[in-house]
Design goal:
The chain is an all-alpha fold. Helices cover 70% and strands 0% of the residues. The chain has 12 helices and no strands.
Amino acid sequence: MEEEKSGVPQWPRVSKFILSACAATVAEMVTFPLDLTKTRLQIQGEVALRQHGSQTAYRGMLGTALGIVREEGPLKLWQGATPAVYRHIVYSGVRMVAYEQLRDVLGRSEDDRFPLWKAAIGGMLAGAVGQFMASPTDLVKVQMQMEGRRRLEGKPPRVHGVYHAFLKIVSEGGIRALWAGWVPNVQRAALVNLGDLTTYDTVKHFLLRNTSLQDTSLCHGLASTCSGLVAATMGTPADVIKTRIMNQPRGPNGRGILYKSSIDCLIQSVKGEGFISLYKGFLPTWMRMAPWSMTFWLSFEQIRKTMGISSF
């Protein structure tokens, strides 16, 4: 096994992929109810859907969560968790391995710093690649999260499970339909990882260089708190557009009925509901990203330490 300059074993990329996926799975299961609440908030009040006869009451984050528990049962807060975990096994595994690889390729400066502009490019590219590969599972996750609401509105269920959802999408629109909404998906992932990966890496090493903090959970926690806030701020508008495009009904040819493209969805949303509509669900998005980011990074760093891998 090759050795790093520090003398710490250089683990194969496959091993780092598995460790990243494990940390992401823990974070996803802990914070998934907030993701479900966020998705419901982003869908309700959608002008295009109201024009097609569907009406939903505005209840806010807490009201939406309590409504799900009261009307559908507490376990429904984890509806769609299975494809969400599948997504993160692919998405987080790929993005973490890709970022470290890009960081090695782009190289550090003479004083062992990774310049911000390089970190930004690496974060955006890693997030985009990871999300493109995981886009089919994200599509299934969004559709399953909305099934409880459809049943309460008296509508027939669209899907009956993860496997059925995949089969239904492919049968209606072919393999290509699995990547419906991939453009806003990838755009969002690039922005989120510009906020998450780039911010965490930059803040963590800034703290290590300029404060008395050691490479411990306290430093990891502070860096992950910053990364969660920046990621939520940058990613929420793209997340709203992505969710609406992926949740819209589709015609026989597999194309969306409500929106022609992500730009069309953006224009309709701003015209119909104002610019603030792009930040619908920001509070639950941030409240989910903050604990998700902290849980992920603390778990990730601890797993690496336990397995004898150098700190991120």
